[in-house]
Amino acid sequence: MTNYVVLRFGDVKSEPNGLGANICGSDCFYMVVFQYGSIVLFNVREHDVDGYLKIVEKHASGLLPEMRKDEYEVREKPTLNTWMQGGLDYIMLQYLNIDGIRTIGSVLGQSIALDYYVRQVDGMVAEFTDINRGMEKTGTFTMERKKLFQLVGKANSNLADVILKLGLFERSDIAWKDAKYAQIWEYLRDEFELTQRFASLDFKLKFVEHNIRFLQEILQNRKSDFLEWLIIILIGAEILISVYDIAHKSAITSL
């Protein structure tokens, strides 16, 4: 696909591509690798996880210093009366095939990636909170213009990455084509509260944006004040030079 790949490991002859096929009890393992950095594993035992992640690390760039993990249970029950059934931290399906893996993987990948961006923005909020508290005590702040511009770039890139790279508001291709997978996609988005979490992220970014604009105005006023004082000093120096020149000429005339 455009921003992810599904890798299959194990017995290639037993691939569950059929409509009613499932992976329960099979020897196949699946790994959905997303371009923005998330990896979703299916049917992989806990002690084998790190081994599969190392396969991706060999071909990845820009690795984060900290890896975040989450778990979600997908159950298969062929005798289930309905196509799907949700529960506490699990979803139950009549069968799980490659389309189900792609649909579920897309939401889980977005969820864990969104956690990363939320932590990034929380860090910026905490930084501006400390600046505001310092201003409350001292009446001024000491942030350099370069640091402020770096925060501007970080805030803008975080929002752009969430919308463009994660495709948070783009419906899954499979969900567009099949109502059954649209049901899974919508259920999981509600289960992981993707819309609400993005709204919270957007609110925090607006707080950061407000503080950035406020501090930019302060820095601009400082620059204006500096230029005004510089102009005053230059005018004063010119006056002193003129007075000295007049006095010097008067002394020569009197001689």
UniProtKB/TrEMBL annotation:
This is Sporulation protein. Residues 31-201 form the DUF155 domain. GO terms for cellular component: mitochondrion. It comes from the Eukaryota. InterPro entries: DUF155, RMD1/Sad1-interacting. The chain crosses the membrane at residues 226-247. Keywords: Membrane, Transmembrane, Transmembrane helix. The keyword Membrane applies.
